[in-house]
């Protein structure tokens, strides 16, 4: 299939959610444009369209895939594989309109683009601390490290979670996350201290701890619900892929998040739990240092 195909993508009907691929690719295009400091008018000149057309592309009201491919070329994404991947994702949306499976090259950039532009975001995990709340030295598991080792990233994840980002962010951390020693104990102690700092920061994220005894089935990876250009988008993130859902496909996946939100306890109210885990890792780190000295 040629990346320059003129095939149109069906526009959403009145009141209908956009196609998942159109919403995700639109966020990706906007992130690329902003990274280059281009206005919508400047971008539109590359595809002989107005700034309004660029805006429609970026907000999920995509009509011509060729316009998306043209903008990618303007933004310096001209590898045939990258162009073909986006073309295929958009074409697949004709059949699977409100579902998008993205394991293809550039998937992490597309995920980061959605996260950076979300007006609000809820992330539920029992797997690891979400990337946007990690200290630089916090590790991820060996499988994720191996699968992402050679993945080039043009669009970084969202910056520090503060009130200046303009986002409303809720982190739903299953209690088991606090007890998973993914790295050196001193790093884990620093990470938990960072979570305490975020929870107490003015304008920072809301952090809820989901108790182990709560009747909530935790996700295998990261389960997120974001609001993007006024539309809800649910994301299931794995070590080397992401699933996206819009429209009616959200309903079967929303109850898990709602149950976790209902069971979650603000970190400030269970500070003893977080502080206890942090102290345990700090004690283990001190013992390691002491052992090295004796040796």
Name its key features.
42% helix; 8 strands; disordered N terminus; elongated; eight-stranded mixed sheet; alpha+beta; 295 residues
Largest sheet: 8 strands, mixed
Q: For the CA atoms, what is the radius of gyration?
A: 21 Å
The low-pLDDT segments are 1-5
What percent of residues adopt helix (DSSP H or I)? 40-55%
Assembly annotation: single chain
| DSSP summary, beta strand count | 8
- H/E element order: HHHHHEHEHEHEEEEHEH
Shape: elongated
Structural class: alpha+beta
Provide the residue-averaged pLDDT.
Answer: 87
Strand order of the largest sheet: 1-7-6-5-2-3-4-8
Q: Report the sheet-strand fraction.
A: 5-15%
Number of helices: 10
Distance between the termini: 63 Å
